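Progress note, sequence design subtask.
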């Protein structure tokens, strides 16, 4: 039987998505440290991906990178305990909201953190606020999550947004960080996601990933 190997490091929040999805599906995997304590990437890892970014997976002869694409593969390869709807249209809509997280929200948050000067900070803050309102106005148009995106069970949309909400919580804890306020539906949703067992376990797994030089001595 092929083994699912995950090349990553302890500071990779994107890998937590994969751990969460695999745990929700009860799929076994093995973590392979991608770098040593000095940040030097292993030769094995560098030979797998042109971007050398984590997480990267190897499943037999197949190598994949980019967290959203990896979780799509996991969903297709291991269809039991589905994390996306069966209906093709509904699946596509869920992927649109994952895209919103990765390509609209996360860049907006990054731009806000990098903004210099009051005008730039205001513009960046407005962009982030607009992106957040789009979730409430469009994603929650029919009804807010109950408690998750598709109802009682956690799915890939929830798992993807945990990456963003975790970053927001980090920024909110910064001494001089920007003020980021979540509307009540978003706050309630992020609380449900953060409290799910597969999310909590993924965070613990991430914290325990060793460095390559440490793993060799174990």
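Output:
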């Amino acid at each position: 039987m092929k083994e699912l190997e995950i090349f990553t490091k302890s500071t990779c929040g994107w890998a937590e998505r994969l751990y969460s999805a695999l745990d929700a599906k009860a799929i076994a995997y093995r973590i392979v440290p991608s770098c040593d304590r000095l940040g030097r990437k292993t030769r094995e890892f560098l030979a797998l991906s042109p971007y050398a970014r984590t997480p990267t997976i190897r499943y037999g002869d197949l190598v994949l990178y980019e967290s959203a694409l990896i979780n799509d593969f996991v969903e297709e390869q291991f269809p039991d305990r589905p994390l996306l709807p069966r209906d093709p249209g509904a699946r596509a809509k869920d992927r649109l909201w994952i895209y919103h997280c990765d390509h609209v929200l996360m860049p907006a948050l990054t731009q806000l953190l990098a903004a210099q000067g009051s005008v730039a900070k205001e513009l960046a803050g407005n962009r982030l606020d607009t992106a957040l309102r789009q979730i409430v106005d469009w994603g929650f148009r029919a009804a807010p999550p109950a408690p998750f995106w598709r109802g009682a069970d956690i799915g890939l949309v929830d798992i993807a947004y945990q990456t963003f909400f975790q970053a927001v919580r980090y920024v909110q804890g910064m001494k001089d960080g920007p003020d980021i306020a979540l509307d009540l539906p978003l706050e309630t949703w992020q609380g449900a996601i953060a409290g799910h067992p597969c999310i909590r376990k993924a965070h613990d797994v991430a914290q325990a990933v060793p460095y390559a030089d440490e793993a060799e001595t174990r």
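The chain has a mean pLDDT of 94. Work on this subtask will continue into the next period as scheduled.
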